[in-house]
Amino acid sequence: MAVIDNVARTFAPLTGTEEDVAWGMLAFYRSTLLMKCQGLEDSQLRFRSVGPSKMTLLGLLRHMTEVERYWFQEVILGDKVVPYYGQDSEADFDNLDSTPVPEVVRRFHIACADSHTVAVDRSLDQDVPCEMFGKPVSIRFIAIHMVEEYARHCGHADLLREALDGSTGL
Question: By three-state DSSP, how is residue 127 classified?
């Protein structure tokens, strides 16, 4: 039985402020990743179809949940976030049976909603209380990085999904 169904794709605005377009693109890619997982059963979401990689669609959902939490909760708000799936850099793709798929999906939705709440009223020009490589970080950098992160992983999801059932271009 499919865990993820009835995903409504969010399309980014083609005009508007820089914030509208940036956050709209991020919402588009969030919904795209969910669409790549739509209609699949637990075992399919866990399937490592592109060896020798440990990457799975379920692992991508877990990974992007942690990415959302890191950039929006830890970097922007300065909160210390304890990872759901472990400290190791590969933890999001390991031990896939440790958390039921519906809980992974629930956590993903919550992380995205929380991130939206954090970002919605902030200017892209605003710096955050974190430095990287000794330099300030702006909300603009985070927005662009998040779009890049999702776009890259949606490409991975394309390959994983196509290997599972031949679906392309969702």
Answer: strand
